[in-house]
Specification:
alpha+beta, Chemotaxis protein chec, six-stranded antiparallel beta sheet, two-stranded antiparallel ribbon, 6 helices, 28% strand, globular
């Protein structure tokens, strides 16, 4: 559903324009909102952005897990409890809530990065640091072997 990396600018109100291909994918399913939440890779903080159908699938999956599992409770508190439902405005922009902007350390320069079923929003410098880590790992045959590829 999603692919690519797109550099954007966050405006003074905390709004950012979705890449046209992401906006088109959302509109083709008649989605007028997204779910935004906290995430972290290699000590770099960023935001995960889900269309409604994928968010509902994820929440349903979490409901099927053990309710008394401490690790699951911590994950749900962080990931689900830290999420916001955000409308996509007529100009194809989303408003990043202040708590999420602060959490991810978003500056003026941000970048969207696609995942198969959702996309991510990064401070551009943070994404570049993680990109270098990914580049090193992907070049290692043993790493790819752990993925079954």
């Amino acid at each position: 559903m999603f692919s690519g990396r797109y550099d954007r600018e966050l405006d003074e109100k905390g709004r950012v324009s979705l890449p046209a291909v992401f906006r088109d994918a959302l509109q083709s399913h008649k989605f007028d909102r997204v779910y935004i939440t906290n995430s972290k890779i290699e000590n770099e903080r960023f935001l995960e952005i889900y269309p409604p159908n994928e968010w509902e699938r994820l929440v349903t999956l979490l409901r099927q897990k053990g309710v008394f599992d401490l690790n699951l409770q911590l994950f749900q508190m962080f990931f689900v409890g830290g999420s916001y439902e955000v409308p996509v405005d007529r100009q194809g922009r989303i408003l990043i809530p202040p708590k999420l902007r602060e959490y991810a350390g978003l500056s003026h320069e941000v970048a969207f990065s696609a995942m198969p079923d959702h996309f991510q929003l990064w401070d551009r410098r943070a994404l570049e640091r993680v990109w270098e880590i990914a580049l090193d790992k992907v070049g290692d045959r043993s790493f790819r072997g752990t993925l079954g590829l």
